[in-house]
Specification:
Layout lengths: L1 H25 L6 H17 L2 E6 L10 E4 L4 H10 L4 E6 L8 H8 L2 E3 L4 H16 L3 E3 L19 H9 L3 E7 L1 H4 L10 E7 L12 H17 L3
Parallel strand pairs: 1-7, 2-5, 2-6, 3-4, 3-5
Antiparallel strand pairs: 6-7
């Protein structure tokens, strides 16, 4: 619980000190890039305060074009590790409930994050149109294909379809990211964190054209890539 309190104090301090500069910076750019950089350092500071280190493997697999990044999801610390240490300008897809949080909602809107309403299929598909526009504007998209955190740490399958609709709509490659170690730091349903190391293992891009834009084939390919990454395979 000690490290939980230290991490909470650290992230709260950063928010108090940086929320005004963050909002001011976002007023001078419509791209959301400055806001994303600000959020990156917030994530790094929170990880530092929580005594969590992050290792990144496979950075040479990051394509030089906008992509759809798909990590597995077992802990809130997945978000911090990816935001802090994946050297890519990307935009999160975020469930609508998080847009109700004061200050965070404004910050996410300024950064160009995309709200997903999972209870309304039509609105969810409209959000994919927004995400496709973000890709055309030059930003990548980050989406957890499992939709939510795994209870036991195993990879949940089948995946949610939204990210694969986006892949087919945009033609952008999918980049799988295996996240290891975060569940040991903060598992689902726990409030107590402990120091540790998170590894981000970036897989090779998966081109939808190689699968004739078949959603099921794409989903299976991403599932297999994440399984191999989590197991330490190539």
């Amino acid at each position: 619980m000690f490290w939980s309190l230290i991490g909470l104090l650290g992230t709260a301090t950063y928010i108090v000190l940086m929320i005004i500069p963050h909002c001011l910076a976002s007023m001078f750019t419509r791209s959301g890039n400055l806001s994303h950089i600000d959020a990156r350092y917030w994530a790094r500071w929170t990880l530092f305060c929580s005594r969590v280190k992050v290792k990144v493997e496979g950075e040479d697999n990051i394509p030089d074009v906008p992509a759809i990044y798909m990590p597995n999801h077992v802990s809130h610390f997945d978000v911090l590790a990816i935001l802090g240490y994946l050297n890519v300008q990307f935009r999160w897809t975020v469930k609508k409930e998080l847009f109700r949080i004061p200050l965070f909602a404004q910050a996410m809107k300024r950064a160009g994050y995309i709200m997903i309403d999972r209870s309304d299929h039509t609105k969810a598909m409209a959000s994919m149109d927004v995400a496709a526009q973000r890709i055309r504007d030059g930003a990548s998209i980050m989406i957890f294909p499992e939709g939510t955190r795994s209870d036991d740490g195993t990879l949940q399958f089948p995946f949610k379809k939204g990210g694969f609709h986006l892949t087919i709509k945009s033609g952008a490659p999918i980049v799988p990211i295996a996240v290891l170690g975060s569940r040991d730091i903060l598992p689902k349903h726990s409030l107590s964190t402990k120091p540790g190391t998170i590894t981000l293992r970036i897989g090779k891009p998966i081109n939808p054209a190689d699968f004739d834009s078949d959603m099921n084939l794409l989903m299976n390919a991403v599932h297999e890539a994440l399984k191999q990454g989590l197991a330490g395979g190539e």
